[in-house]
C-alpha cells in the first residue's frame, strides 16, 4: 500500500532524526536542523509540520511597482523575524503565476526560514510565451528588491524554477544587476536549448557524457511547442497549434492530422520540430523556424552566453532522474563557470521540480537546503 504524504513526511523525519539530534545544541537550532524542518514542511504542503508549529505565519501583501515605465505585480511574504534578507522567487510555467498553490506554499516555507520573499508575476511564464522579456522583468525585480527591500544589505537572492533559470541567469549578469545578486538558486534548469529540445523530442541527451538519461516525458514536446507559438505571424497557425498541443496534453493518442493539414509553412515548421524523433535533424529543423523565434531561441540559450559576467554564487539543484531537463544541463552549467562559483546538488528526492523526500533520497536535498540557508545568513 502506498504511503500517504503525511506518512512519508513522518518517516523522513524519523529516519533522519539522528542527524537532527547531532545538529542541535544548547537551545539554538542549527542550519542543518532548520533544513530538515524545511524539507518536512515542503513535503507536507498545506498539512501540519514541525516548521509550522515552530514559526508564525508570514504576512502576505500584494504590491505594484514600476521600473522605467514598466509596471509589475508581485506578492511579498514577510517573516516575523527577517534574518536572511530578500529573495526573489521566479515561477516556472503555470497559468496561475504567483498564485500557483504549490509556489505559494514554497514561498511561505522560505519566509518561515527568515527570507523576505518577493514573487513577481511573469506574463510569459503564465501563458507559455517565454522570451527575453522575462529576463528584463526579472532584472527589474532585482532592481526593485535591492532598492526597496534590501537597503543597506549586500543585495538580494534569486531562486528560479525550470525554464525560468535561463532568463534569471541572464537578468542576474547585466551591467547594473550583477553586483545586486548575492546568490542564485537554479532548480532543474537548462544550459543548452538545442540539446534540451533534442532530448525532449528524441530522447537523446547529447550532453550526458555517455551516461544514459531516463526517457523524456512525452508531454514535454507539447509544452515546448506552446511556449513558442507567440512568435508565429499567422494567427490561424497559432490557434491550430495551440489546439493540437492541448489535445495531445489531454490525450497522447488524440487524432490531430486534420488540424495538421490546415497549418501554413511557419506552423508546419514548428509542428515538425515538436514531433521529430531523429536527433540528427534537430538543428536543421530549428533553422526552418520563423527568424524572430530563432533569434529569441539563441538569446535564451545559456551555452551561447558570456556567463563570466555573472558574479553571484550559483546553487544548482537537479534530480538525476529528471525527465524534463536532464541533470547533464546543470553539470555543464557548473563547468561553464569559474571553479568554486557554482555548486551542484544532485538530489534524488527531486522529480524535476516536485519534492518527495524519503530516507534514501532526502540527503541531497538536505545538503542543498543547508547550503542555501548558510548563503542566506546576513553578513
- Helix and strand string, N-terminal first? HHHHEEEHEHHEHEHHHHHHHEHEEEH
Biggest sheet strand order reads 1-2-4-3-5-6-7-8
Termini separation: 48 Å
Q: Per the principal axes of the C-alpha atoms, what is the gross shape?
A: globular
- CATH topology category name of the largest domain: Rossmann fold
What's this model, at a glance?
This is Alpha/beta hydrolase. This protein has 379 residues and is of the alpha/beta class. It has 17 helices and 10 strands.
Describe the structure.
By secondary structure, the chain is an alpha/beta fold. The protein has two domains: 214 residues, Alpha/Beta hydrolase fold, catalytic domain (Rossmann fold), CATH 3.40.50; 97 residues, no CATH class. The strands form two sheets. It has an eight-stranded mixed beta sheet, with helices on both faces. A two-stranded antiparallel ribbon has the order 9-10. Helix 2 runs antiparallel to helix 3 and helix 7 crosses helix 8. The protein is globular.
Amino acid at each position: 500500500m502506498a504511503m500517504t504524504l503525511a506518512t512519508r513526511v513522518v518517516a523522513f523525519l524519523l529516519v533522519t532524526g539522528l542527524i537532527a539530534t547531532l545538529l542541535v545544541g544548547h537551545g539554538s537550532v542549527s542550519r542543518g536542523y532548520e533544513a530538515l524542518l524545511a524539507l518536512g514542511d515542503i513535503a507536507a504542503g498545506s498539512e501540519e509540520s514541525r516548521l509550522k508549529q515552530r514559526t508564525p505565519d508570514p504576512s502576505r501583501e500584494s504590491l505594484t511597482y514600476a521600473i522605467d515605465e514598466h509596471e509589475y505585480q508581485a506578492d511579498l511574504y514577510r517573516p516575523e523575524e527577517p534574518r536572511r534578507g530578500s529573495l526573489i522567487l521566479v515561477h516556472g510555467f503555470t497559468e496561475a503565476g504567483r498564485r500557483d498553490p504549490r509556489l505559494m506554499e514554497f514561498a511561505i516555507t522560505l519566509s518561515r526560514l527568515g527570507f523576505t520573499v518577493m514573487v513577481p508575476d511573469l506574463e510569459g511564464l503564465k501563458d507559455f510565451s517565454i522570451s527575453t522579456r522575462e529576463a528584463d522583468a526579472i532584472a527589474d525585480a532585482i532592481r526593485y528588491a535591492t532598492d526597496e527591500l534590501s537597503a543597506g544589505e549586500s543585495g538580494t537572492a534569486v531562486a528560479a524554477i525550470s525554464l525560468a533559470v535561463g532568463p534569471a541567469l541572464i537578468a542576474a549578469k547585466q551591467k547594473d544587476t550583477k553586483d545586486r545578486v548575492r546568490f542564485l538558486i537554479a532548480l532543474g534548469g537548462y544550459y543548452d536549448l538545442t540539446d534540451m529540445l533534442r532530448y525532449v523530442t528524441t530522447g537523446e541527451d547529447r550532453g550526458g557524457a555517455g551516461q544514459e538519461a531516463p526517457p523524456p516525458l512525452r508531454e514535454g514536446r507539447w509544452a515546448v511547442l506552446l511556449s513558442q507559438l507567440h512568435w508565429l505571424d499567422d494567427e490561424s497557425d497559432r490557434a491550430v497549434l495551440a489546439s493540437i498541443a492541448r489535445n495531445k496534453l489531454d490525450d497522447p493518442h488524440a487524432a490531430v492530422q486534420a488540424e495538421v493539414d490546415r497549418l501554413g509553412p511557419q506552423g508546419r515548421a514548428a509542428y515538425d520540430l515538436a514531433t521529430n524523433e531523429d536527433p540528427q535533424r534537430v538543428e536543421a529543423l530549428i533553422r526552418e523556424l520563423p527568424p524572430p523565434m530563432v533569434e529569441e531561441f539563441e538569446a535564451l540559450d545559456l551555452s551561447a552566453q558570456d556567463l563570466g559576467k555573472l558574479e553571484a554564487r550559483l546553487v544548482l539543484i537537479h534530480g538525476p532522474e529528471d525527465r524534463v531537463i536532464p541533470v547533464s544541463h546543470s553539470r555543464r552549467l557548473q563547468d561553464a563557470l569559474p571553479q568554486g562559483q557554482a555548486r551542484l546538488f544532485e538530489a534524488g528526492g527531486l522529480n524535476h521540480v516536485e519534492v518527495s523526500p524519503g530516507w534514501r533520497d532526502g540527503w541531497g536535498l538536505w545538503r542543498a537546503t543547508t547550503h542555501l540557508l548558510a548563503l542566506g545568513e546576513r553578513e
